[in-house]
Design a protein that fits this description.
Layout (H helix, E strand, L loop, with lengths): L2 H8 L13 E9 L2 E2 L11 E5 L6 E4 L8 E9 L4 H17 L12 E4 L2 E4 L16 H4 L1 H4 L8
């Protein structure tokens, strides 16, 4: 589970400033020595940013990022202000995935009930009878209600 996964699921990159403007910077960028200089964007140490339009480095990184692949690209850098509650939830989802995300876990089973050798079990399906029932064992279904407040409608 990565911050990229949760932002993609939410369709929210947390790139809006307090006044509702998008904090996106467009232009030519150079990554040299595995680092990118974003000092002219107002980004703070520890803050997340998203690179868009790069061949090698698209995705979310934390500033100051090191270990990037050297390149020059025309694209954008989105400065992100991810709420602490989202980062906490990301950690919680990661723990949930470790416990329930394995192929052999009951949560990932395509069956809602099984019976064999005198043993049987049933699991509830999230949104039973709805479109959600198919992903009842996913982190998206398990955390849907807690994620919804940050979700943005897809265009």
């Amino acid at each position: 589970m990565t911050i990229d996964d949760i932002c993609r699921e939410l369709n929210n990159w947390f790139d809006e400033t307090a006044d509702g403007q998008r904090d996106r910077h467009f232009g030519a960028y150079e990554i040299s020595g595995g680092e990118i200089d974003l000092s002219d964007t107002g980004i703070k140490a520890g803050q997340y940013f998203r690179i868009v339009g790069s061949v090698f480095n698209d995705g979310i990184h934390q500033y100051p990022a090191d270990g990037l692949t050297d390149e020059t690209f025309d694209g954008a850098v989105w400065i992100m202000a991810v709420p602490k509650a989202v980062l906490d939830l990301l950690e919680e989802i990661g723990k949930w995935e470790q416990k329930y995300g394995g192929a052999d876990s009951a949560a990932m089973s395509p069956f809602t009930s099984e019976s064999f050798g005198g043993y049987s079990y049933s699991k509830s399906a999230a949104g039973s009878g709805s479109a959600d029932a198919g992903d009842a064992g996913s982190w998206q279904a398990a955390f849907r209600s807690r994620l919804n407040k940050w979700r943005k409608i897809r265009p």
